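Researcher: Here's the sequence for the chain we discussed earlier.
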Amino acid sequence: MRVSLLVSALILLAAPPVVRAARSKCDLVVNAEGIAEKPEHSKSCTDGDSACDTGQSADGICQYHVSLCFKTAAKGACAREEIEGMSVTAGPGLEGLVGAMTRFKTNLTADSCTEPVDVQVQTRGKRIGRTLLKAKGPAGRERYTFVCRPSHQGGGSSATFAKDIQKKIFDSTCATPSCHGAGAASAGLDLSDGAAYSNLVGVPAANEAARTAGLLRVAPGDPDHSYLLLKLEGTLAAGEGVPMPLVGGPLPASAIDTIRRWIAAGAPETAPF
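Model: Thanks. This is the structure I predict for it:
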């Protein structure tokens, strides 16, 4: 009996280890002509900018030429069943992407991208227009924002972080002695003049749920994944804290829009946006 057990143990030790294939994570990547791949979740164009607006006219509409691509973390092809399990929901003007996705899934080939289609995002008069593409798949739920900036803002804006955000918003509303001033720095966030920028841009959120979700306080170029803006707009997920400011009610829509424009422009420290 002992000999039999010993032989069995030796066989198990000699057997090669079982290597389990790692489950690939299939990511959806939105490619828009004339726009850098990063930030991944936000695409921004100025109305009439020939580099990204394929309509090439300042008509209140940014026309994007977009394809949806499917890649693993190692930049390899996704498995057929992963792509088949994906779905997208389009906001106004992006409906063509739903059709492209449907056609791609119906006739899967070795290609990793859908055919490019034209989609449109309208400005809101003199204000920025935006619309969302929502995706659901193996990587979870994702949101992709398409932004259209009015032509009069392209390169001619004089707004700056110091003048229009620090002085007009933070100094009067946030950087108070009882909240995010230098002496209080609630949640470790000091929004006083000279400290706010370095405490916001590229810094992980202090809230555990938000940090686990990968949120930065300010993610340059990606307002919809910037914790600061989610707090101000009150669009937080469960466990991610409470909307701000705590006192005095929400900020005016114009102030929130200024912060959104700043983040979408890459959150410049000194350059106008």
